[in-house]
């Protein structure tokens, strides 16, 4: 049998004697799941489409109405509708089903205990919470720059050096 390079932590499937490699997956985590992680999830979907499984969560989720500035910024500045977003708690997510977990800053990363270092990516993105809309736009633009650093190609394949 030929060897297959397996990316990620999820199971491979056998289909008629061939191995199917599942699409890569990313979980974005911030404090309330109302600003940075929401924007990162949406902008990842916009960039990679269905080629990547993506989700977001918060360590202390806030009420849905607290996401209004992020939702509005995504709609107006990035032409992406996230009006149905409901903040989720990190503990309700099966973190082991994701190839990568992105902590939106080093303080969030410190609270994500037990995630192997090779799967935990730490970004340095300030929380725009309770700031004006220009700060939300700036946050979105910074997230777009960070997305280019994800070890995933535009087609959704994981890079060999990841």
From TrEMBL:
Q: Which residues form the active site?
A: 30, 36, 127
The Phosphotyrosine protein phosphatase I domain is annotated at 24-154
An example of a GO molecular function for this protein is: protein tyrosine phosphatase activity
Question: Which UniProt keywords are given for this protein, alphabetically ordered?
Answer: Arsenical resistance, Hydrolase
Task: Read off the SUPFAM superfamilies from this record.
Answer: Phosphotyrosine protein phosphatases I
Alphabetical GO biological process terms? response to arsenic-containing substance
Family label: Belongs to the low molecular weight phosphotyrosine protein phosphatase family.
Q: Which Gene3D superfamilies match?
A: 3.40.50.2300
Q: Supply the name of the protein.
A: Phosphotyrosine protein phosphatase I domain-containing protein
């Amino acid at each position: 049998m030929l060897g297959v390079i397996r990316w990620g932590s999820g199971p491979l499937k056998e289909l008629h004697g061939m191995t199917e490699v599942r699409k890569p997956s990313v979980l974005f985590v911030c404090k309330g799941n109302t600003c940075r992680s929401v924007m990162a999830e949406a902008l990842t979907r916009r960039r990679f489409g269905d080629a990547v499984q993506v989700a977001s969560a918060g360590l202390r989720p806030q009420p849905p109405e607290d996401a209004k500035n992020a939702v509005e910024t995504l709609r107006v500045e990035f032409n992406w509708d996230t009006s149905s977003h409901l903040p989720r708690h990190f503990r309700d997510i099966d973190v082991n089903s994701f190839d990568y977990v992105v902590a939106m800053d080093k303080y969030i990363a410190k609270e994500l205990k037990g995630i192997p270092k090779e799967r935990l990516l730490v970004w340095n993105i300030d929380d725009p919470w309770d700031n004006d809309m220009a700060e939300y736009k700036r946050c979105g633009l910074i997230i777009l720059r960070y997305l280019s650093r994800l070890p995933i190609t535009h087609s959704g394949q994981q890079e060999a050096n990841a």
